[in-house]
Amino acid sequence: xxxxHIWAGFLAVLAVSAGLFLGVRYAQSVEAxxxxxxxxLHAPLNITGSALQEAAFQQPxxxxxxxxxxxxNQKSPNQASAFFQTYPTGFETYEVARGGDRTIIVTEALAxxxxxxxxxxxxxxxxxxxxxxxxxxxxxxxxxxxxHAYQLVFxxxxxxxxxxxxxxxxxxxxKTLEKDPVLQxxxxxxxSGTLQGTVLYDAVWPLGKxxxxxxxxxxxxxxxTYIRSLQKLNPExxxxxxTIQWQTLAAQARKQQITQANNNPYGFDxxxxxxxxxxxxxxxxxSGDQAYLANMDRSTEWIDFDILMRVLTELGAQPIVxxxxxxxxxxxxxxxxxxxRLVFYNRLEQTANRYGVPVVDFRDHEYDKYxxxxxxxxxxxxxxxxxxxxxxxxxxxxxP
Amino acid sequence: MxxxxxxxxxxxxxxNPWIRGAVLAxxxxxxxxxxxxxxxxxxxxxxGFVYQEF
Lengths: 400, 54
Hints:
The complex is a heterodimer. Chain A is an alpha/beta fold. Chain A is built from 18 helices and 5 strands. A 5-stranded parallel β-sheet of chain A has the order 2-1-3-4-5, with helices on both faces. The termini of chain A are far apart. In chain A, 46% of the residues are buried. Chain B is mainly alpha-helical. In chain B, 59% of the residues lie in helices and 0% in strands. The chains are: A alpha/beta, B mainly alpha. Chain A binds chain B through residues 4-5, 7-9, 11-13, 15-16, 20, 44-45, 47-49, 98-100, 127, 129-130, 132-133, 135-136, 138-139, 141-145, 147, 214-215, 217-219, 221-222, 225, 376, and chain B through 17, 20-22, 24-29, 31-33, 36, 39-42, 44-54.
């Protein structure tokens, strides 16, 4: 008599499994259908989920960019996703970025994607200013993705050494793990680097893997619900191939930018200067070098950047590191010399090159007064032309 | 005492192992679907976002 319950339960589980499998396939087809239309929208699920990123990586005409506010700002027709929105040279950018994003968040997002990265181009964006401090726990919690954490711990083929490095960093933000004992336990075992830790991690793996599957299903459900909520979203995107005259465009953008940045000697936007730097005082040349170099040296961004490079290499991605230059006139006036800035450029380049990853840091644009709009710097309409040109070259394999 | 005229039929159907198995399967399926419906949405919200400028 009991066998009838077992068979009935088995059939029910089988039916649910088949339903979930078909549901995931349906969700993936919806995500693939709408992913081009979603590219310029910067959906919030880009930050907390993986489904949209997986769909975007499958598209040969979407170039993935990971970074922070410098990827999104300043808004102008030259900002990458706006500029490439009509696929003028055959591709559009897909940006996974949010203000305040740091390398550890980017690393977690990319590590979570695992084998989806194999052979895929990806742009890692940064600004020099992010390499002078650590991400505070509150900001980290606001950008932390539980799904990314589970996926990278239980679902990717990263080496144990890389997982250990990531685990050590993630455990420095314990508040984000409080509600996930399985995840926290697995991270602690990975971080321990002992044989006992390896055995205990393997023991907890099935439970973590199961939880990962549940979260992935939830992600697909949330993504389809989000897409369906955008009732006016047309999956068909406009494609207008055109030839871009980069020099003409840069000259035009510069001309416009000059009129927006004429109340200060550093090329910053007038409104930003007025609201944030009106009381700025010039400092003696080189007087800020020591403090700057000490802060930069202490920054945990270097640890995270090194892990990021390892992750991308192990997963077989084809990355490029694309930065923004220091706004040199401002840094000179702030007492931070060209020599101190060079230490940063060289260190970043050496770290990336160690993994065979090319770097475009625009250091030759340091004294281009109108490249950025503030100290970070966020990119001006002129700066965007140079960034767009580099993105275009990377996508079309013409980058040095 | 009133008895449901359908009861003998129901009892006969329940005694049939195929029908009993099918009813049980649907019953378990319903439980699983309700669980998925209850917990399927997940929570992809993060704590209050705080912009850390750099």
